Amino acid sequence: MPGKKSPAKGHYEELKAKIREHDYNYFVLDRPQIQDYDYDQLFIELRKLEEEHPEWVTADSPTQRVGGAPLAEFEKAAHRRPMLSLANTYSVEDVKEFDERVRKFLESDKPVTYFCELKFDGLACELIYENGELTGALTRGDGSVGENVLSNVRTIRAIPLRLHKAAPKLLEVRGEILMFKKDFARLNEQQQESGEMTFANPRNAAAGSIRQLDPRITAKRPLRMFAYAPGEIDGLRPSSQSAWLETLNELGLPVLRFAEWKTVRAALENGYVPEMPLAALCQGGDEAVEYYEHILKLRHQLPFDIDGVVIKVNSYPLQDRLGTVARSPRWATAAKFPPEQATTVIEDIAVQVGRTGALTPVAVMQPVRVGGVTIVNATLHNQSEVDRKDVRVGDTVIVQRAGDVIPEVVQVIAEKRPASAKKFKMPTHCPVCNEEVVLPEGEVVTRCVNTFCPAIINESLKHFASRRAMNIEKLGDKIIEQMTAAGIVRTYSDLYKLDRDMVLSLERQGEKSAQNIIDSIETSRQTTLARLIYALGIRFVGEQTGKSLATHYKTLDAFLDTSEEALIEVEDIGPKVAKSIMDRLHNEEFRKEIKRLLKNGVVIETPKKVAAGKQPLFGMSIVITGTLPKSRDEIKDLIIALGGKSPGSVSKNTNYVLAGDEAGSKLDKAQELGVPILDWNGFQKLIE
Ligand code: IVH
């Protein structure tokens, strides 16, 4: 039947559309509608269909985000229009002066409408869409010539490979590539676990990931993007910044939501919630100043780093009249926030031993306040970092905190170095067990390799019990240390032999807390294959790899019986990781320990696959308020897992408000809008 689609092809197209929509919901709207597991299944099915029908595959298929081999270098390419930079200002006074200059230039005594946005702390990038298809992505470079990083940018799932609507002939759109703080923290954890270098802050991580010559590595980095400025365009004429962002939103590109300043202010005053407008249309300089001040206060609540706000004249005809001077537009200014750095003195350099035996030097400093919190410790990473920065005990240093990141020493103030300042030298013996340490040739991380080192045992147990591993909620770090010191726990499986009396025998242990510990160990017995694999702490096997292995092998036995050749075939697993896994799997003690875990009652449940249409809360929006039997996060996770969503505020689109004790304004709002209210029992019935 020429011209007619076969049912199989139709299903294939539907599957692609579904995956694109989930990517959009997750990465652009920040509103996931599906569990990771179910998403992975869709993806696996798509891959299978494409293997059977390679002739169907087009460049905009979700599977084609990573294609091609590593590059030798990036190609240089000229920007059709230069990428300008912004004049920087640093205070409220400067913002007022900017407004005065604009009004003077325009000879206007009426307030100018400003479009105020966040100044994202990432790296600028220009996307090029030709007839709706993503055909280029250039870094800023020197503003005239950038580098083509298309193969990397294609891996960013927030960026559509094809625009959603009838697209103009040419659309160049500029924006910022960045990493969310939570994704960054996770990435660094994984890097640390796998013995690879960690990044100082989300911006470095984003920039490093884009400069990768191997797109397969970039694909594993959780990058995001926000679009904000036009480049060359053919076939579309936006009249203002606000109209431009609306157009970008319709085309499926990630942009900040915006509203009139008064609306945004009301939202900001309630604190950050996803989906709230963070850009604002401000009438006149005074409102722009208010915007700056409000965002300054809220900056740490945002899910990503910003280093200021950008204030732009909203009207494009007015922007054209104002023009450009010395490579910066007269119509915009970047109002930066004061830097979050402080000066303090290093009193000591301590050495910590981690789960993998890695020795990490940590600067112990005189307490100092940076960005609203007091810090005393800063990581120095390893000996070669200490040498590079030449940090010594007694030095006065500048420390910095970027978002939620571990504080770091930026630099030593050389003039303030006392004559007595001592150079740091990594110990030759483990500070915890006193065994000799090793520094393998070509590596920077010194390690303790004594499997009986109490530090390694304690840290391994802490990892095993942690939230994303076995999730033994009440088993805190201190308790673990007490248990190993008392000799009642030595290996993971020992945890599942504990009874209440054994816990009670620990010092300062009360009946209630002992029972809580036992209960939470009990609950953790029921787990998933992915969690268990991750919990076992195999080197280079982070949470993500644990999930890939579980998805691939499905059962613990299949995983335990695998071979190195078979492992390489698994998604995300390279030779280094495969070798490390095989090392463990060949280790008799490791296999015995797994047997003991099962014997002591650990049970692996198979994740149940709920079809999208059969999820009881599919498409529903349920707002949580008040005190309930479970934590808000847990309930929210449950709602999402069952196909619903749980935004932070009540609107006419809310299906239910789940109200616990002491519910406040959200309950009032629900009553006002006539939104049905559920108590805990009602909610239980709904999800049954
Ligand atoms: S507009 C001509 N908007 O700031 C103005 N830039 O110095 C074009 N940036 O390299 C840029 N957030 O990387 C604009 N909301 C925003 C921005 C933003 C961050 C960066 C951008 C650029 C630098 C300008």
Which descriptors apply to this entry?
single chain; about 700 residues; alpha+beta; D-amino Acid Aminotransferase, Chain A, domain 1; OB fold (Dihydrolipoamide Acetyltransferase, E2P); about 20% strand; globular; binds 2-(butylsulfanyl)adenosine
Overview of the molecule:
This protein is α+β, with helices and mostly antiparallel strands. It folds into five domains: 58 residues, Orthogonal Bundle (Helix Hairpins), CATH 1.10.287; 249 residues, D-amino Acid Aminotransferase, Chain A, domain 1 (2-Layer Sandwich); 104 residues, Nucleic acid-binding proteins (OB fold (Dihydrolipoamide Acetyltransferase, E2P), Beta Barrel); 151 residues, 5' to 3' exonuclease, C-terminal subdomain (DNA polymerase, domain 1); 76 residues, Rossmann fold (3-Layer(aba) Sandwich), CATH 3.40.50.10190. 37% of the residues lie in helices and 21% in strands. It contains 26 helices and 28 strands. The chain has a six-stranded mixed sheet with strand order 2-14-11-3-10-9. The chain has a five-stranded antiparallel sheet with strand order 17-16-15-19-20. Strands 5-4-7-8 form a four-stranded antiparallel sheet. Strand 15 and strand 16 form a beta hairpin. It is globular, with a radius of gyration of 28 Å. The two termini are 46 Å apart. The structure holds 2-(butylsulfanyl)adenosine. 2-(butylsulfanyl)adenosine binds next to strand 3, strand 8 and strand 14.
